[in-house]
Amino acid sequence: MTQTEMPRTILTLLFLVITARLDEAQKSHECENVATSQEGLFDNPERLKILLKVFEKHIEMEKLNITLHFLENPIRPNVQISEAARIIAYYLEESCEENNWVHGKKVLELGAGLGFPGIVAACLGGNVTVTDRPQIVPYLQRSIDLNIETIQKISGEIRVEVLSWGDDEKIRSMPRQDIILLSEAIYDDLTIDDLISTMVRLSHDDTKIIVSEGDWIEMEESELKEAWTKFFHESSEYFEFSPLPIGNYDCFTFEGKVRKTSNTEEKTSESSPGHTEF
Ligand SMILES: *[C@@H]1O[C@H](CO)[C@@H](O)[C@H](O)[C@H]1NC(C)=O
Ligand SMILES: *[C@@H]1O[C@H](CO)[C@@H](O)[C@H](O)[C@H]1NC(C)=O
């Protein structure tokens, strides 16, 4: 360990401790109290603020001429900006440069985490709903709060909602969407059926789906790979996916369209897509 690495390591460990504490505190909305109670360890709250800067991400979107702000949580992978989220965000920005196909469209991000792609869609003038499980929603809300001025300047609309896949009552209350975004959302074999039924029920004939996943899915014998395979296998009854030609990234990115053959009865049906053996 070199001399410069040493303090970094110690700082990183301290960050982890603080973030874990902040995380707990946030649940009971005592964030500020906890920040000041760390004084003994970190002298003062100002210093703590400086330490926490390490987890701030300021992402420039060149074509949109904006900078977006996020606060990552280093101990929760789904509260970080993933490569897959970056790819969708940049893809939206780039592909809308000539012909903005997001403007005025209803956009839904599922399993949004910090909501980077959804926020970019709102900055492109989309009418966006970013969703995640209840325990992630506070982080998602913080991302929106950090960027709301930029979004509103561009006249986009965005809202955060709790959506657990397969929650019939919630899904029934939501409108069908023009664009559905999924980044690093496919991770668990057990949630795939609910995810697909949620997508089917929130899409219409012309809904476009963008899905991106890190290349870890290539790992042999990985459960994640199984989930990914299952997702494509079972969703192929409803959606037709084709790879998006996005180079230089360690991700698999696909665009999905609703199969014209899937009939309306299926789409409005309350039941989830059937299991298929393979
Ligand atoms: C980018 O935005 C800044 C203000 O945020 C503005 O001053 C500048 O003129 C903009 N640049 C372009 C090329 O629109
Ligand atoms: C945006 O979507 C929300 C919820 O789906 C809806 O209430 C609102 O009217 C929409 N806004 C526009 C401008 O269409």
From TrEMBL:
> Entry's InterPro entries?
Methyltransf_16 (IPR019410), SAM-dependent_MTases_sf (IPR029063)
One Pfam family of this chain: Methyltransf_16
Q: Does the keyword Zinc apply?
A: no
Which segments of the protein form a coiled coil according to its record? none
Q: Enumerate the UniProt keywords alphabetically.
A: Signal
User: What does UniProt give as the signal peptide span?
Assistant: 1-25
Q: Which PANTHER family does UniProt cross-reference here?
A: HEPATOCELLULAR CARCINOMA-ASSOCIATED ANTIGEN (PTHR14614)
Protein name (database record) = Uncharacterized protein
